[in-house]
Amino acid sequence: MKNNYDVIVVGAGPAGSVAATTAARKGLDVLLIEKRQEIGVPVRCAEGVIKAGLDEFIEYDPKWVCAEVRRGRIHAPDGNMLCFSQEDTAGYILDRKIFDRSLAKTAAHAGSEVQVKTQATGLIIEDGCVKGITGKCRGQEFEARAKVIIGADGVESKIGRQAGLLGPLRLKDVESCAEFLVSGIDIDPDCLELYFGNKLSPGGYLWVFPKGKNEANIGVANLADRLNGAHPIDYLERYVSEHFPDGKIIQVVSGAVPVCNLPGRLSMSGLLLAGDGARLVDPLLGAGIMNAMISGRMAGNIAANAINAGDVSAKALKTYDHEIRSTIGKAIRRNYRVKEFIVGSSDLQMNLMIAAAKKLNVESIPVSEIFLEVTTNGLPIMKVVRMVN
């Protein structure tokens, strides 16, 4: 590891790897670090991603696809369903261990230096400008400087907090999640299932995402302020024991997902934040993979443009904030308002919303178009309100 780089990217998840790839392809000297000894581990994700646009970031490889999704069902608390389908593949259920490593390999092949078991412990800030990081690489302390630091270090982002760009999350803006990988069960292998209801998952939802013919990720996401002393795993264990009593739990994961509104600032002099480290998860769906890669690409491009222009000031890097706000930020802001409305709804209101949506014939819309509309434009809150009136 050297002492100086053009760009240092902290975190080798989808956002960080795409940012590193983008900057390296622009001819920059890039360091990509990951605090864990294995990229892609542990998995803290339902692993679903829409197919549209994915090829812009990575070449398709069946090794990281566990299932192809063509249908989706949304279940109301009373058992009523919205059913969406299409003939071609709408999305994939990934093997994140393989997928994330493939993205990191792409960054390495583009020219990035990749270091695992290497964490950033602090920022070097001089005269209000971020100049580098301090850290530990496999137990050895180091200091490395760069013209731009990209913080892509996940929901627990130290970079954003140390820079003063991110404050603590409110409990109502955090989903506490638990997930089992369950094998030996009878499921629909190409259909996503989402279940709503306060008995199943207060302030959130439960999912069943297929990972093959007889295997699925089954998980719950509960708003942290609605748990009342319980733990998401309690709800999950009850559901699995009731619906898949013969299933074999072969993996357990848990974690937190930010479901907040768009932060006020994502950049400062010498620093950009991307992915979950910028809290760019869709607050309605909890989906973060595509937003992570989109923001990573933006961060890599803007860092390269600023460095090539010789100006990494806060004013120059603020272009990143503008681009985020005019693209994925629109959906985040609108979907946050929808989330606030939905989590305040009773089971009866949720039943009425899903029944009203069926009357509006939304099931005729292909599942990929539904997902794209929600994640790129956001779901208009007034349409949701009108459905229950």
From TrEMBL:
Pathway assigned to this chain's UniProt record: Membrane lipid metabolism; glycerophospholipid metabolism
Enzyme class, broadest EC rank: oxidoreductase
Protein name per the record: Digeranylgeranylglycerophospholipid reductase
Cofactor note: Binds 1 FAD per subunit.
GO MF terms, alphabetically ordered: flavin adenine dinucleotide binding; geranylgeranyl reductase activity; oxidoreductase activity, acting on the CH-CH group of donors, iron-sulfur protein as acceptor; oxidoreductase activity, acting on the CH-CH group of donors, NAD or NADP as acceptor
Entry function: Is involved in the reduction of 2,3-digeranylgeranylglycerophospholipids (unsaturated archaeols) into 2,3-diphytanylglycerophospholipids (saturated archaeols) in the biosynthesis of archaeal membrane lipids. Catalyzes the formation of archaetidic acid (2,3-di-O-phytanyl-sn-glyceryl phosphate) from 2,3-di-O-geranylgeranylglyceryl phosphate (DGGGP) via the hydrogenation of each double bond of the isoprenoid chains.
Binding site for FAD: A15, E34, C45, A46, G48, R96, A120, D276, G288, I289
Residues the record lists as binding a 2,3-bis-O-(geranylgeranyl)-sn-glycerol 1-phospholipid: V367
EC numbers, comma separated: 1.3.7.11
Gene3D superfamilies to which the protein is assigned, alphabetical: D-Amino Acid Oxidase, subunit A, domain 2 (3.30.9.10), FAD/NAD(P)-binding domain (3.50.50.60)
GO cellular component, one term: membrane
Originating organism: Methanocella paludicola (strain DSM 17711 / JCM 13418 / NBRC 101707 / SANAE)
